[in-house]
Amino acid sequence: MEAVVGLISVLLAVSHGVETYCDGRQNGAQCYGALGGTVVLQLINPSEISRFQWTKNNAVIIYWRNNSLIENQIQDRSLFTPSDGTLRINNLSRNDGGEYKLEIYDSNGQPLSSRYLQFSIQAPVSSVLLVSECLSQGEMRVSCSSEGGDSPQYSWTLDGHTLTDAELLSGNKETNNITLKQHVSGNLVCSVRNHVSHVSKEETISDCGFIFINCILCDGTHISQWVFAANNTLCVEPTTTTVPTVGKETETIVSHHSLLICGLRAAVVVLLLIGIFVYFAWKTKSKTAGGSAVQENSVLMVEMRSSATEL
């Protein structure tokens, strides 16, 4: 018997796929195995091994009696170790899932106890892909997709900490799609797990190049919005408006430039008005002086004509 067990041990020495462990000694235990992988079930206490049977849907899977394995319906891919009461099953398939019943008897065949075990098979997550894109106002949408995996669960971290509401514009941090606020940057990690696997993907993200501007234009228009820095023509220099930057110190963005432009424009208008006033004043004075000279010439000509008549 020991030689047979040893031979089986050698044949099953190589583990296939993902290996999981579950303690099934408590009634109602929930155990999980990876599709195509291996599970090690703590099926029974060594002290209880006298006579027992393990069944599924009333069909006997394993029957042990008098230190001998009387029956094993999955013997080509399983190994029961009586010294520790564990059952190892390889190459798990969907058909292995279901409810199992363990019945323990004394040496005389009288029932001592029974317990149930629920066994579920899940496909493991094999890989994770991160895709990010900038939105119109500088937000960043990030999608996390996983290949394979039954009932995947998602979680996110940024520079080692769980994403906060101050960093998330929308989306639950436990879903596969999130939208980050402007100026969020750092090492973003998406983790995908189920009961039989855990895979993560890391990507370094930077802000989308947007800045927050806050100023009043010459026509009284109040500008307060996020704009793409490379194309910005408003509030070019910073104002003393503080803008919260997520996860970092508040960033101060200033802009006296618009006020300077307004002042220069006003000065140009004033100078233009003064110039126009001076021009018209000079023009009026010139016309007045010209009119007086004409009148004096007319009087002189009249006097000259009168003298000539008298002669």
From TrEMBL:
It comes from the Eukaryota. The keyword Hydrolase does not apply. This is Ig-like domain-containing protein. Residues 124-206 form the Ig-like domain. The chain crosses the membrane at residues 258-282. PROSITE patterns: IG_LIKE. Keywords: Glycoprotein, Membrane, Signal, Transmembrane, Transmembrane helix. SUPFAM superfamilies: Immunoglobulin. Its main location: membrane. GO terms for cellular component: membrane. Residues 1-17 form the signal peptide. It is found in: Membrane.
